[in-house]
Structure prediction request, 1024 residues.
Amino acid sequence: MNDQRPVVIIIFIFLVSAVLLTKLFMIQVVDDSFLKKAERNAIQRVVDHPYRGLVYDRNGKLMVYNNPIFDLMVVPKEFKVGDTTRFCQIFGITKEQLIEAYTAAKNYSRVKPSPLIKQVSTTNFARIQDYLIDYPGVFIMTRSVRSYPLPIASHALGYIGEISSGQLDRDSAKYYKQGDYVGLSGIERYYENDLRGVKGVKYKMVNVRGVDKGPFKDGEYDTASVAGKNITSTIDMDLQLYGEMLMNGKTGSVVAIEPKTGEILAMISAPFYDPNVLTGAEFSKNYRKLNGEVSKPLFNRPIMATYPPGSIFKIVQSLIGLETGILKPETTFACNRSLVACHNHPSPSNLFGAIRNSCNPYYHQAFRQIINREISSNTFKDTEIGLNEWRDRVLKFGLGGSLGVDMPNEKGGSIPSSKLYDRVYGSGRWKYSTIYSLSIGQGEMLVTPLQMANLAAIFANKGYYYTPHLIKAIEGDPSQIPANYRVKNEVGINPMHFDLIQDAMAEALYGTANRAVLKDIVIAGKTGTAQNPHGEDHSVFIAFAPKEDPKIAIAVYVENAGWGGRAAASTASLMIEKYLKGEISRPALQDYVLAGNFIY
Amino acid sequence: MREADININRVDWVVVSIYFALVFIGWFNIYAAVFDSQYPKAIFDLSINSGQQLVRMAAAVVIIILIMVADHRFFENLSLYIYIAFMLLLLATPFFGKLVNGQRAWFEFGPIQVQPGEFAKFATALALAKVMERPTFDLSKKNYQLIAFGVLLLPIALILLQPDTGTAMVYFAFLIMFYREGLPAWYYILGLGMVTVTLLALAIENNLYLAAAILAITGILIFLGKRTWQRALAFSLIGLGLIAYSYSIDFVVSKLPDHQQNRIMVLFNPDIDPLGVGWNVTQSKIAIGSGGLLGKGYLEGTQTKFDFVPEQHTDFIFCTLGEEFGWVGSLVVIGLFAALLYRLVLMAERQKTRFSRIYGYCVISILMFHFMINIAMTIGLFPVVGIPLPFFSYGGSSLWSFTILLFIFVKLDASRASQLGRLN
Prediction:
């Protein structure tokens, strides 16, 4: 009977071996999930975040740089604090803070690192380093935040922040990962692809405690990160700083452009904020706070606020009149105040006088001739044809649509076409008397401060402009800037027509804005008043200087400051002086501007 | 001394070769388990485990030589004294042993640590062989069964005092030898039945299903066989007993210490707590499973090298093999073990004395059990039990005790010509 038992035992031996080998075959050869798990275990993909490009001003002064900050991270599973009091003493936190941060970390993950102390200062960092070895499960992680030597130009520079889920979805190249920082506004956003550089990836092996055990396969699969490109901006920091000083406490915009290139020398949106508050750990808190303020400091007025252009638009009307031959320099109209209100000045005036004195009835009558040319015997039809032809000419001045400045969310304002009036009044039910407000830049017409500055540049250039932009060079190379900023845009007006305009604008300063007159530099300017149904009108002024060889074109908006000759013209004049001469010869005027508090 | 005692030609070189093959493969794996690519050290470096193991291997060779030159009757004649000596040692261990992980299983003599529970295996094997060698000894009879189980249960009881459940469990391996020596088959059928019911009771959430299944099977068995009332009663009682037993399992498990409960639950679902109790099995499976067909290459393993698998140089040494040499490596080692066990069965069957044969089957039982359970636990087929892989795992006690165990049999086999034919 026992003879078969050794056989049973032998069968058992081979059966067990077969079972073990089958199971091993299943997990080793058939099921490849263990291989993936092993890689997840021991191979850590470490993203090497590149250094974000710096931003310089047009004179090579640093505007934005990266500041390293140190976070003390904790892995709860490995963390052993020992004497809590001693720990708190060394790391300079209270016991409550420690408990709170540790609890949060533990709730997030027991094995993944979370911040225990955010933004350890550099001095503390040096001191803490020696103690780190005593505490398992804590380590220092270095990040860098954007920093600004001067707290200016916040709107133009923009800010960076954690990428939103919507942006992640739109990122078809799948470059970004959750938690990445990305430019959210201004230059930071527009030149994100240049500034961000290229992320590198390192595969390193870690042991069970996450301790680095060297590169995986000697770094065969690693890629190096490429630092972001440095950007040179067109902004002149001195001018920007001075402008922000002048605009401090006011609401409005200043845009200064170099007419010959379209380079934006200064771009101020008041009230402003310190760009340093939208960096680092406090970003969300500060953003919410700024976003909630009534004065809307985050609102980028130069490109997002739109106003009726007001009297300044009369220059455009004059140029269109001259180009179409409807107006001649000697054309006169009476200052007929039954048509539209005006102020006291000699009447009748020719074109020069009309610009100089900003005569409303002159343009009421001139615009009627531009619009109604009796192409059609039907008045309504005639007006429609006239309006649309006129609109095409106006659009060439960079109005009625966004210019394409290198900032996100630029508004384009609006120049009405016949479609708008058809919609409001019905087709064939409106005529010149409906739209005459357009003649003096009021009515259904909106422009941004940037477009106004661009108008000043057009007048300075006698009929062309380069799209205003904030980029001067990428990695020091001016040829790398977007090609559209090197395209000359003609406005379709014969340059000879500008002579009269420029003369009149220079004269106008004495007429309407004598505060703005500079002794040795001829400024050509034009005041305007943007009507404000909610209160005091907005003060508007555009200018360029010097008249003979324009180096700066500027538009200034000061909200609720009343008539344009006051606050806006003075500010513009001071900015021009600052830019051209580097110093201010009229402290009294500066004090006047600084004292003005036009916010109500 | 008899002339035949050191007859080198009678030594079974197949077994000796497999032994050395396993020891050396194990040694290379121990080196791989502790190898640190950042601070590479030579395999002979005494500051690392592989160097230490080499010393132990040298000591093992000395032990082998001593066993081979000794008189073969030495073991047979002294077997009961050796047994008693080790039982006394086991008795002393819980009181004087070194406390490690809540167990007192080790004695410390200076730098050398010895685990009496490991060495008591060969002592128990010798004692069983001695007790059972008499021609009249019949395992189908109650009183002989009592004697055999008495010899077996004594060390188990003593080791449980330490308490070292894993090592104690190994002694049940002698049931394989008992099987060969004629313990009635229904013991095993009943035992397997109990194990099956136990596993099912643990695996199935609702014991009601299990109870229903047992009732159905009992009913069918009653219906199919002779329908006498005695038989129906007996089957019904067994069925009801099994149902009661299945319900008692959960109760018993809940009374077990937490770490043992967890080990059992992890067997059924290693994912319940992959970072906690499931860690060993999960990581061990990942290490072995990531080896693929041919493995990652010697010293190229990441899981074992970077300490993801705990106890990787001792109880989980198979992981290193599985990861670095893949399925082919596993095949070679499992093949070697199967060949060794097969060879030992053949050897045991050719013995002229019952003593030698019974001892041979004791060796088979112990090796078989360790081999089966150790590898099964690393791949999640068995709960984690802290027992080493013979000849492979790091550690002196383990290596030496298996060496003594095996080579006493090699010695007995080599001297079989000079033994009196007492086999019947």
